UniProtKB/TrEMBL annotation:
GO biological process: phenylalanyl-tRNA aminoacylation
Keywords assigned by UniProt, alphabetized: Aminoacyl-tRNA synthetase, ATP-binding, Cytoplasm, Ligase, Magnesium, Metal-binding, Nucleotide-binding, Protein biosynthesis
Binding-site list for Mg(2+): 258
Family as reported in the entry's similarity comment: Belongs to the class-II aminoacyl-tRNA synthetase family. Phe-tRNA synthetase alpha subunit type 1 subfamily.
Name of the featured protein: Phenylalanine--tRNA ligase alpha subunit
Entry annotated with the keyword Aminoacyl-tRNA synthetase: yes
Compartmental location: Cytoplasm
Amino acid sequence: MTFTDDLAALRQRALAALDETTDLPEVQAWERATLGGKGELTGLLRGLGRLSAEERPEAGRAANMVKVELTEAFAGRQRVMAAADLRDRLATDAIDVTLPGRQPAVGTLHPVTEMIEELSEIFALMGFQTVYGPEVETSHYNFDQLNIPSDHPARDVWDTFLVEGEGEVVLRTHTSPMQARVMESTTPPVRVVVPGRCYRFEAQDASHEWAFHQLEGLAVDERITMADLKGVLREMARQLFGGDRRIRFRCDFFPFVEPGVDFAVDCSVCDGKGCRVCKYTGWLEMGGAGMVHPNVLRAAGYDAERYTGFAFGLGIERLVMMRHGVDDVRAFAGNDLRFLRQFAGGI
């Protein structure tokens, strides 16, 4: 066979093979086998040098025409296969816009934060303003201004985290320092609640954490009595837990109040029968309270003969435990979504 015959046969085979390709990879494989550096047409063109001088020009023109034709055929087939491949991928990835959308995952407030906001609303209806104070506090406000001087034995009761630096700086052990700060900057009457985080270096158990939240309450005015304190706390408990909860006040000692009481609600976890949360007493202590000590009033510049007041501190986590029947305070700081999802469906 002559070179021209071989070229015609190659053209016919190549075009037939190209027509039989069904996807883009097959088209690209055809291009490599036919037009590539080691392709069939390239190998045939290398034989031009073996032709005579008279045959070579005509054979060269014919070979170039075949190469151009096959290249254009490849480009056309590649466009067709690329378009088909795109259609297939679009069909596979198609989205039915008529389907209802997926519900997005939406966060919600932590149960402790929700309790703080609810308490703030409850006390706002009784005339209390919500204020906030620093978590890193000086011993002057954390202890001295609250009738707990450096030589007072009660100062050892608070296992305190000390902060390195000049002077005695601590992580506040209670929200009570805001009593002194508020009274120093406010003229009676005073009615404030102070929510915030507190820190104590103590052992952890089902009802105690080293970092916890309190809500401090303070009211100072003329002729305020213990009956006012009991009325405010009873109303708070009624709005939080309902009228069927039992409330208990017992005498207790706190250096910054006199007289002092502890405020407890019958345990909703065990319905007052006794469990590890209430230490098998049937009561869950909510916090301490009492009449503001005259020394605290005088330290703030108030006339202790004219003004009286009451103060209370409530454990926020314990209130949430009572509300929802949680039996371990450590769960609130665990950030376990399985636990948190029980309080709101949005997490």
